[in-house]
User: What shape does this take?
Amino acid sequence: MAERLQAAGLVSADPLSDEELLTACQWMGHGPNLDVRGRIARGRTLTKDLRYRLAQALWEMTPPGFVSDLFRARHHSRHSILAYVELQQLLKEQNRIRAVDPV
Assistant: This one.
């Protein structure tokens, strides 16, 4: 999952540390965080949904500039056609990233 994000240039090419992985788990919320950690501790594989959510969390915690641009564009899109167009481009990019089926 991290390799696909790294290949797309969306996550640093450096190997992920345990701390980075566990931080991403926290971004997933309380329930999924505990589920992922429990599965990792027991050596069980992650479900497709958990892999997807973990990949999304890894991506969200990596480029904070993109996430803040998305929220800014969403806020301003109500009053500006240029912000609306920017929002549509950012959403298209987000959907392209999310379409990656995590391994």
User: Anything to note?
Assistant: The longest helix spans residues 81-98. The CA atoms of residues 40 and 46 lie 8 Å apart. The two ends are 5 Å apart (CA to CA).
